[in-house]
User: Fold this.
Amino acid sequence: MQIGAASARGVLFVFFAHLQLLFAASPFSRLAVDNICGVAAEFRTGKSDLSFGDYDYGAFSMDATAELANGLNHAYMLISAFLVFFMQAGFAMLCAGSVRSKNVMNILIKNVLDACVGCMAFYFFGWGVAYGVDDDGEASSFIGAGSFFLSKNKANGGFSDWKGFIFQWAFAAAAATITSGAMAERTQFAAYLGYSFLLTAFVYPVVVHWVWDGNGWLSAWGDENKQAVIDFAGSGVVHMTGGVAGLMGAIMVGPRTGRFGPDGKAVPMPGHNAALVVLGTFILWVGWYGFNPGSQLAIADGASAEVTARVAVITTLAAAAGGVTAMGLHYALYKVWDLIAVCNGVLAGLVSITAGCPVIEPYAAVLAGAGGAVILWATGKLLLKLKIDDPLEAFAVHGACGAWAVIFTGLFATEGYVAQAYGAPWGKTEYGIFYGGSGALLGNQILEVFIIFVWVGAIMGGFFYSMKVAGYLRSSPEEEALGLDESKHGGSAYNMEKI
Amino acid sequence: MQIGAASARGVLFVFFAHLQLLFAASPFSRLAVDNICGVAAEFRTGKSDLSFGDYDYGAFSMDATAELANGLNHAYMLISAFLVFFMQAGFAMLCAGSVRSKNVMNILIKNVLDACVGCMAFYFFGWGVAYGVDDDGEASSFIGAGSFFLSKNKANGGFSDWKGFIFQWAFAAAAATITSGAMAERTQFAAYLGYSFLLTAFVYPVVVHWVWDGNGWLSAWGDENKQAVIDFAGSGVVHMTGGVAGLMGAIMVGPRTGRFGPDGKAVPMPGHNAALVVLGTFILWVGWYGFNPGSQLAIADGASAEVTARVAVITTLAAAAGGVTAMGLHYALYKVWDLIAVCNGVLAGLVSITAGCPVIEPYAAVLAGAGGAVILWATGKLLLKLKIDDPLEAFAVHGACGAWAVIFTGLFATEGYVAQAYGAPWGKTEYGIFYGGSGALLGNQILEVFIIFVWVGAIMGGFFYSMKVAGYLRSSPEEEALGLDESKHGGSAYNMEKI
Amino acid sequence: MQIGAASARGVLFVFFAHLQLLFAASPFSRLAVDNICGVAAEFRTGKSDLSFGDYDYGAFSMDATAELANGLNHAYMLISAFLVFFMQAGFAMLCAGSVRSKNVMNILIKNVLDACVGCMAFYFFGWGVAYGVDDDGEASSFIGAGSFFLSKNKANGGFSDWKGFIFQWAFAAAAATITSGAMAERTQFAAYLGYSFLLTAFVYPVVVHWVWDGNGWLSAWGDENKQAVIDFAGSGVVHMTGGVAGLMGAIMVGPRTGRFGPDGKAVPMPGHNAALVVLGTFILWVGWYGFNPGSQLAIADGASAEVTARVAVITTLAAAAGGVTAMGLHYALYKVWDLIAVCNGVLAGLVSITAGCPVIEPYAAVLAGAGGAVILWATGKLLLKLKIDDPLEAFAVHGACGAWAVIFTGLFATEGYVAQAYGAPWGKTEYGIFYGGSGALLGNQILEVFIIFVWVGAIMGGFFYSMKVAGYLRSSPEEEALGLDESKHGGSAYNMEKI
Assistant:
């Protein structure tokens, strides 16, 4: 919009505003409220590239209140996107602190490149796979069809959902980074470049399309008659996808040398810097306030404002409950006040609430987070029994707790909150069985868990297997012993002066 | 609000909007402006759980402009809350860097748990103690009465002030973390869990109720005829409370072994990582932009927007003046460009402006910050003379400068700014004696300092004394010598590969 | 504004609102839309201290929609300012990680003081030099004239552009910090204090006045008939200024002892902590989302919302392209996956898009970022050939890529985007020659690069030369060998317990 055009529209606005006086029952007055709510509604469908620039500037959309609502929603979504992107810094610090000092640059460069390669992949293909439509504005229920390279197409009059792109890219980068953690300290760099691109260009965006695009077959934000999964900010879409990909990678690449002793027992390989782990955890927690509350995609209307604020509180309660539970569990079992366990408990709590945050009660958030901490611990034990080495516990935190979160939502979603967050215009009314729901929601939630496991497991498993067979997956024993930093990245991450 | 309901309200809106045409002098047109201002006013009283969800959706409150103002205020308060929470990361890095490397995990787990345990404590009791009302919507002037566990009550038709809760929780966690710093490196973990819970569940929320809840006996945001303390973002409420609790703890637990030599002189125990101290300082500074400007609790109306922006500048000036003054002071005295002193000077400057930021002039902000740096230095010297060992200088920074800030406001608050920030509808007009004020404000400010010192000192002092007598307060000499990380937290924070 | 005054204005509002009914063609209805757009327009000129507090509260400006737009723009600009300030933490971590461990406290105290001293300098003089007007509201095209010490003057009825001050201060601190990096590890502290103050009080604000103040002779946001440089967020204004100052400093102070061997070849002096470098890079990237999108200075109107969101995406694409290109370039040349090179590539990409972000297409953003990574590499090689030692590659990243960004904008700015971002009311229409532009824009861009090089180079070069002659510039060989931390800052940044 040019400012000059604004003046022209102003004149039209005057005309219509006063035309309105002639028809006392005219619907024009409703526009202000409806536009605010409507903006939120259209945002959620994923079909609409609804930046203001694309409006057909008829009298209706010129409404000043709608313009302000658009501005406010832009501001809130952009800031949320920046917070989600900040999570990359959190993952980087968490990962760096959790590996041995000889592999720090290796994991850090992957974190930086998850944002960079992920951006290229999402720009080239990912966005189009997730949300693209063809020239008729259509897309299949399986995959998007257009907007590759942020290209223009007839249906939407040129790409314009800029805030949507940056928000979604930040999520995609998070999924890729989760995967990196599970394969840390022994994976070839070329293999990393491959899976990072594959995941952010195709595997992850397809899941996004299914669950979040209005055309997707599992989407709650589409037709009333479709499957309706409630996975608000992506416990399944993002965390399970990243976690399951990581599990496949960890299985295929095998455990770090020396991780399991001759007796099959796990040998501790503690990270090299607990301060970085805590810093990473706090940054991730802060970033989650973009992840979860930002996923409302709007805040200008009263309902969105309330949901967004409640989501922030619910998210906090689950994180705190996860941390406290992990503290108690580890002290009870091992008589140690375990800092790393508390940090992972916080993250488990956060993952465990990400699916259902707008539809569950505060007390249930505490249950979700506490349960997540237990599931994290149990999953970690199980993987060690199976001799699967996941240095960051990425599958336990993101995969297992992601599945827990999706299913938990099918149990504890309340009728009123579902109606508020997923009612009009999407017409979704199914809620949790613990509140008397029919079980249809729970069934759909289980279906999401199953289908993500199958889809991501099959494609990423196949990819990692191919890389393994081709000899591109695992670093050589010499490189691993020396450390990847010295062998591949030109030196050590740390160079302290002799004193 | 459900979107479906929005449409229904839209119809009502049309009706009333056009009814309006029949009565040219009708007050309906005023709603837009009044609602914006009114939202801010009601937010400040603390009595109103004013999320939009609670509106009686009559024609009046349906006003689209009010809905937008509500959305904008939600967005700003949520982001401010996230910034305040980010301060936990800042405290964690500041504390970690300031202790010896053998106690890093100990201080870090306390920082993480201040957020987690503090959340549970504030969810269970703290919020209700601070802002809760009974079923008739009443609360005493001493303590809140309801909304425990975010429960619903008749007076407000169900809990709804979600943004208020997350904002206040972040403040409570900050108070607890301040205390941790003063007792670092020699306190038992169980004692920590006790005081963290006690502080965030009861001691701190009571102070909040007094000063910030409209019902509190010291609140400026309540009845016109009450005591009116100006402690905008909590130099007294948050920083003095945390600092005085820390002082009591430091006295009761005693100095670290070896902190004072046989001659009674302090032996330097430098922190182990200056980079973490700087990182923490910067994060705290950034977080303070949620703390101070966010405490306006609204930004949609013109007055709030101006106050919020001015508060950001005033806060910056005080922080910078504190840093520069500390630099000059330490160079003049010791001929060292002292990085840690500059960092603490910045924090002292920030604490010193937190009470009065909306009511003082820029030049006075420079004075407040510079004075804070001097008070920090003098208080630090005094504590060493008294053989009180406060590893983070928590009392000097937060306690002493907190008191300085509260009293400074009684001296330098300008008439015009008080009228702008505390005038209508609260009717507060008292300003600083240096501008010709009557002294009533200064008297109230001194009363706040006194009463916080007594309240927090008595309860927390009593608690720490009981713990000491029961043998739960101080770590054993062996644990302290070995380091708390090895003895209680399962190993060292750092594990560097041999190269 | 007092709330009481709001009520009084409400009455006036009612009067005018209903008066409006009598004149169907009255222009009053246009106010809502026009005010939103107008707010953005006036913000950009730099002349208007347009906080709401300064409004002549006639019926027009009381419009509720304009008040909300003002609130929203305040919120967005404040948060953007906080993000830009957060970059100081990023620079601090980047610089600390990039120097040797014996000079960490030295570089960190400079980073902290760049914010503190910079604040004092900008409060005393800088703001007035950049944006000040005299009592008649005038300023020359070369330098501002008033508002020193945030003083009041008749023209604007008292200082009120609080959000503008904090936003601009954060930019000024960034420029000073860029300079510090180029002179790290061998510069006297007194010299630093001098150039930091000089830069933020005078040299940098003059450039700001030229390019960003509506009165400036190069400003695109002023008269239609003036030179119009497109330097949206300051690739030239901020980054070239800091980078050229750093280059002058690095030349004058000479290379670190041992940086060049007897054969003239550069001896690697790797930084001491790669994790801090990555943390700094991510924080800078996050902060850039305040730097670039925030430079729209408004988000309430539809055009600003779209530009802001697009700028965020464009910025991301350039950063990612810079990182990926640096990765490929260094692997192709040296067979190393070079973490530090990738980090610097990201920063080069960010600098390379900062001038033109609102006026170039996504594909061009990729070109700009990729080109920046190449220019960074080539400039680094060139400086080593010339035996100029720039430890942080500050000139390569900020100076060279800053110039590249400004010139790139003259090549790739599209006609439509220029019209959107710089059309009405500023009447600027010149666009890039690759899209058929006349070359006038490109000429102006080259002029900006030239004039910043001359201005900053001459003044800062002269200053550094004077300091050198006076013996205040370079640390003594003994201090440098021992490390500046031990010799000047009271000890080492790191104190690890023996285990």
About this structure: Chain B touches chain C through 81 residues (CB under 8 Å). Chain B is about 65% helix and 0% strand. Confidence is low (pLDDT under 50) at residues 1-62 of chain B. The CA atoms of residues 310 and 329 of chain B lie 28 Å apart.
